[in-house]
Design goal:
Order of helices and strands: EHEEHEHEHHEEHHEEHEEHHHHHH
Oligomer: single chain
Organism: Sphingomonas insulae
Shape: globular
Protein name: SDR family oxidoreductase
Pfam family, one: PRISE
Strand order of the largest sheet: 3-2-1-4-5-6-10
Structural class: alpha/beta
Distance between the termini: 44 Å
Helix content: 40-55%
Number of strands: 11
Domain PRISE-like Rossmann-fold: 68-353
Amino acid sequence: MTKTALVVGASGIVGSATAALLVERGWTVHGLARRPTSQTGVLPVAADLQDATATAAALASVNPDAVFVTTWARQDSEAENIRVNGMMVRNLLDGLPKPTGPRHVALVTGLKHYLGPFEAYGKGTLPQTPFREDQPRLDVDNFYYAQEDQLFAAAARDGFTWSVHRPHTVIGLAVGNAMNMGTTLAVYATMCRETGRPFAFPGSAMQWSGLTDMTDAGQLARHLLWASETGAAHDEAFNVVNGDVFRWQWMWGRIASWFGIEAAPFDGTMRPLERQMAEDADLWRQIAQRHGLAEPDLARLASPWHTDADLGRPIEVVTDMGKSRRLGFLDYQPTDLAFFTLFERLRADRLIP
C-alpha cells in the first residue's frame, strides 16, 4: 500500500527536498505551506499554523502515516520565538485527525539546541564538541525546546512515534528562505566576479582555521525518511550532518574556484556580509537584468545575517553522528560537492548567471 506523508514547510529548503524524495520513493505527499508552490507530485495544503481553526480545517481530510515538520517563524525576541513556534507545532498536531494506525512525526530543529538561540548564540557555557545527542539542554530559553516539548506531549497523548533531527547549516535550494548560506554565498561570489570586488571571507579567525561540518538538504531528507521507517530510530533525537569535516580556509578557495575568481587573503578581520551587502540591492537588480535572471530581488535570495551568525562564531563546531551510524544510517555527502550541486541548480534555474 502507498504510504501518505504530510511535509510541513514544503516550500522551504528542507521541506522541498523531503517532499521530492518522498515522491521519488512512491509516497502520496501533501505539502503544507502558507503559500504552497507548485511541486511535482505534491498535493498542496494551504494553512497558517498560527491559526488553529484554519489549520484543523485544512488538515481535516489528511491522515498521514508520517509527518515531517520542517518550518519555523522567526520573531523579534526568543520569548516570541518560543510562544509562536511552540504554538505552531501544537496547532499542527492538534489539528491533524487522530491516527487510525501507526504514525511517525519527525521534527527538524538544529544545532542551536547546543549553541543557544540567536539572542545568546555561541555564548555562555556550551557543551563540549563534538556535540552529542545525550548532552543536556542549555539553561537558557530556546524555542527548539518548546517545539520538542509540544511534540513529546502530543505523542504521549495520541500514541504516535517521533524523532528529532538536528542538522548543522543546511545547503539547499529555496527562494525566499530566511536561512540560506549556499545561495547567499553564490550571490556574493557572483557580485564579486561582476564588479571585481574582493571575495573576502566574512567570518571569524576561528571559523577560518577551525574544523566544522554542514548538512546537505538531500542528506537530511534521507535521514528523515530513514528515521520514519526504522523502528530503532523511533522516539530518539539525532544529529545529522554530511559526514565530512573541513576548514573554511579550504572551502573558501573551492567556492571561489567554482565561480572563476580568486579568494582574497584572510587577515583575521571580520567583514560581515550584512555590512558588505547592505547597499547591493540595486547592483543585484542590474546584474539580474543584464543576464536575464529569474529573481531580481536580492532579499529573496540572500540572508547575510544568518550566514554572518554561522561564519562569525568564536568556537569550533563539529557534530557527532555516531548514534545514527550505530542504528544503520550510513549515507555520506561531501560538502564541497553539495555546494557545487546547489550552484549548478541555481544556474539552471536562472537564479545566478
